[in-house]
Specification:
22 strands; elongated; 9-stranded mixed sheet; 6-stranded mixed sheet
Amino acid sequence: MKFFRLLTPLLLTIVAVLCFAPAAWAFCGFYVAKADTKLYNKASQVVIARDEEHTVLTMANDFQGEVKDFAIVVPVPTVLQKEQVHVTEPKIIERLDAFSAPRLVEYFDSDPCAVTDFENRPAAAPRSRAVNEEPEKTSDRSLGVTVEARFNVGEYDIVILSAKESGGLETWLKRNGYKIPRGAKQLLKPYIRSSMKFFVAKVNLDKFEKSGYQFLRPLQISYQSPKFMLPIRLGMINATTEQDLIVYILSPQGQAEITNYRTVKIPSNTNIPLFVKDEFGEFYKSMFQTVYTKEDRKVGFLEYAWDMSSCDPCSADPLTQEELKQAGVFWLDDNSGSNLPASPSFRRPSPKSNVFISRLHVRYSRDKFPEDLIFQQTANSESFQGRYVLQHPFQGELKCQAGREYKQSLPKRFEQEAQTLAKLTNWNIQDIRNKMKLSIGNLTYSWWENLLSLLGLY
């Protein structure tokens, strides 16, 4: 059985807006593109809904291959019972991704010769808002492995294991049909020392075929533990390259951050050349790699932090209460009650109604991330988003003094955008200027020729 390349939990339109704000930006632009997880070939996604010591963790999988080869081993802090495990739909993770993804927005300069009535500006467009086996406890004394529970959930057969030593656990897994990559023994050892249990899942082929699903659905587990962490080391067993992990942390408090590695905000709120509109994916990947390298490849990046009830500008509608429940939020004040399973170890806290989302992006390798990720929740409710601005110049006739001053200011602005883009991405500055020439040169107003000439672009 192949290992699920897991970094998942535990292991694992364009609309013109008359908005002219040359110095301080107001959120009156319109989203035009987003940098979601589709940009990355190897990106795992984990959703963690946590309040106090209660956690609901959703593991998205990007497993590619025959479902019969799928297997996952996840360290968990407690023995899980059937009521604490269920499957959910991948759509909910896609919604979180779309809502929180870094975004490209565009603004349009108003006529500097027109008297601007700030109070009468047009407002931004409204925001769219099976037969289950009884648990059994068996033991292989010679290996030091105990089967604490065994059950079926959806299309998955699940066992919960405890072990006394990593060699015995590795042997047990191999004897039971799990093809463990080399190096597993060493990486399993610290989890055994910490008395963690092991959540082991594989696909029940009969149930999967009867389900009618074409892809494996995410697994969701609930548990109570003072540990707010995400084991990622097992996901490095057979990794040959750096891997991307996106963690969506849902909290009733505020931003979440990594405590054993620095949490850094992704560069944001910068003006970049207009041609990037057609190259936003490549721009974001280059920018991320540049800042990742600058930070010595050992930090986590905050890409989004916002109250879930709103967004500005929105790249997707905020999640509904029902969708938040599906994502694991268990503290919503809803008389109908949560659809999450109850369990002896998962006591529901008092009802609350606020949900704050933090999107953390970690690109890691074994040499730079030798420890599992440890998080903490904070009371910081400051909003943040990875946001990149296209500022369209006014293209009409300008005869007033303010208009002449506006024209004179544009060459410097264009050059600043070029230099900013070069610094963010390490792209060649002259290549950027040449692309700007093609982009700006499409405008039909003759006075642009003089501006381009001043820039050395015409």
